[in-house]
Specification:
Length: about 375
């Protein structure tokens, strides 16, 4: 049996007719940039999160815009987790800032109060809290750190992978003043192209970000700031509105699949040397990925890559997010002096994401779990 890592096209089969109807209506409307569909999507997502919402062309753009709205400018230091996708640090640089790398918790994969080093926080204009693999970032915890250690710093949530998740009843993107998410197709709330959304604390911030998305124009031919061209297509907005109505159901099905992996793998996890992902009390992840840690063998050698190769031979697709921490990347070397991130370095050698979609079958998960356990037993 071939079990692809991300057969996301299967998730929308039950409402594909609605998607095609929405696409047709949007196409025939002749309003392909902005317009009623985009405005409606912004209202709906803003109401869900409890913030002002402004759409844009990508999740990376959304994070750049959130940072600029938070006041980040040329030369400003911004603390970011070393274990994240490159866009997290890239967005800081594109906003004019300087990334400072902090370590992450090895169990949650997130930067938290314990790993946000004082070196990274000292003099920082902002901190970017990233929610990885579908877990909302610990924004309340980090806000408390900023209040005591850096009261002038802004908290910005990078929720590219966590829109739809909750922590203590608060939705991802709703626990910090500034947040950004992505509509890239592989995200839990992914669209059918590219796009993003910025979440902001008030109407004034939203008006500024809306202008920045449109070349810095606050009115026609009145450029008050240097902006850029970052607008969401109306057809993408129409499709996302259909999917948004299914977000709760899709989240529940992904959670059920994650629970099934737990049940299949937990009895053997300690014996074969894997650490399973977990959610803390009060968390409701959206399970963008189900990511295990493949711990070193008895001889201390890493086993992740050998396991991944063996699973591929057996027909089970997997993925590695991320194979190198940000502070080790060539383009960030000049900013990484003194960065101590041993957890991020270890995770980059251990993490392995298993196939998980809303439509994955119990049989497929059983085959993956059986292959993983059997393979690891030969690698001990």
């Amino acid at each position: 049996m071939k079990i692809p890592f991300g057969a996301i096209q299967r998730d929308d089969e039950e409402f594909r007719g609605e998607l095609l109807d929405a696409l047709r209506e949007s196409f025939l409307s002749g309003r392909w940039i902005g317009g009623p569909e985009v405005e409606a999507l912004e209202r709906e997502l803003g109401a869900f999160v409890g913030r002002e919402a402004v759409s844009c062309a990508s999740g990376t753009d959304a994070l750049v815009l959130a940072l600029r709205a938070a006041g980040v400018g040329p030369g400003d230091a911004v603390a970011v987790p070393a274990f994240s996708f490159g866009a997290t640090a890239e967005a800081v640089a594109l906003a004019g800032g300087v990334p400072r790398f902090a370590d992450v918790d090895p169990d949650s994969f997130c930067m938290d109060a314990e790993t946000l080093s004082r070196a990274a926080l000292r003099g920082a204009r902002a901190v970017v809290a990233v929610g990885l693999f579908g877990r909302a970032a610990p924004c309340a915890e980090l806000s408390a750190v900023l209040d005591s250690e850096a009261p002038g710093a802004a908290l910005v949530e990078d929720a590219a992978q966590s829109f739809g998740a909750f922590r203590d009843g608060v939705p991802s993107c709703g626990a910090s003043p500034y947040a950004a998410t992505s509509f890239y197709p592989t995200k839990p709330f992914g669209g059918y192209g590219d796009g993003g959304m910025v979440f902001l604390p008030d109407a004034a911030s939203a008006a500024r970000v809306r202008a920045l998305c449109n070349h810095g124009q606050y009115a026609r031919d009145r450029h008050e700031e240097i902006g850029f061209n970052s607008r969401l297509d109306a057809m993408q907005a129409a499709l996302l509105r259909v999917k948004f109505r299914r977000l709760g159901s899709l989240r529940e099905r992904r959670a059920a699949a994650a629970a099934r992996y737990d049940a299949l793998l937990r009895p053997s996890a300690e014996r074969v040397g894997i650490a399973l992902p977990s959610a803390a009390a009060g968390e409701s992840p959206v399970w963008a990925q189900y990511t295990v840690r493949v711990l070193p063998g008895r001889d201390g050698a890493d086993r992740r890559d050998a396991l991944r190769a063996r699973l591929a031979e057996l027909g089970a697709g997997t993925a590695v997010y991320y194979s190198a921490p940000l502070h080790s990347q060539p383009c960030w070397a000049r900013f990484a002096a003194g960065a101590e991130c041993p957890n991020a370095e270890r995770l980059s050698r251990e993490v392995l994401s298993l196939p998980l979609t809303a439509s994955i079958s119990a049989e497929e998960q059983e085959r993956v779990a059986e292959a993983l356990v059997a393979s690891l037993e030969t690698f001990r």
